[in-house]
Amino acid sequence: MQLAQIQAIRADQDKISVGSQISFIYTLIAVDHHRALLSKQELERSKAELNALRSQVENKRKEIERSKDETKRQLDYLHSLNKEFNSTLMARVMLEVELQRFREELVFTRAIYEEECNDLALLGTYQIDVGQFYRDELARAVANIKKDLEILAHARYQEWEGKKKK
User: Fold this and answer.
1) Considering just the CA atoms, what is the radius of gyration of the chain in Å?
2) In whole angstroms, what is the distance from residue 101 CA to residue 99 CA?
3) Structure confidence by residue, pLDDT tens digits, 4-23
4) What is the model's pTM?
5) Do 157 and 164 form a contact (C-beta atoms < 8 A)?
6) Nearest to 59 by CA among 48, 51, 69
7) What is the sign of the dihedral through the CA atoms of 118, 120, 121 and 122?
8) Is 124 helix (H, G, I), strand (E, B) or coil?
9) Over the chain, what is the mean pLDDT?
């Protein structure tokens, strides 16, 4: 009987021990469920925060693209202004060069004019024979007409010979 009592006492102790272990396990399970619930809530908050951050990143990305487009547009405009400036500057330089050339030509022409005036003053009065001038011009005009008629006669002769050979 004593053995049965010892076994009964031992069974009660085992029962109590197993009961407290089961109670401890249920407590751990409850704690784990609570932690899982907190983790799930934290995960949802993190997802919401991640979505908000993704939205912010996308907004910043769009803003950067707009800034890039605006920068490119401004650079293109700057390049066009630079080209216009260069062409205007080149035109101005060319005009200044031409103006300088005209100034130098004017000085040279004045020097020649004064030299010719001085030469004429040294020669005295110079008279042109108008009659001789017109005779020379008339002789030149007659020679040109004669030459044109000879060319025309030669062309007609060759045309006539071409028709004759056919």
Assistant:
1) 59
2) 5
3) 888 888 888 988 988 889 99
4) 0.41
5) no
6) 51
7) positive
8) coil
9) 90
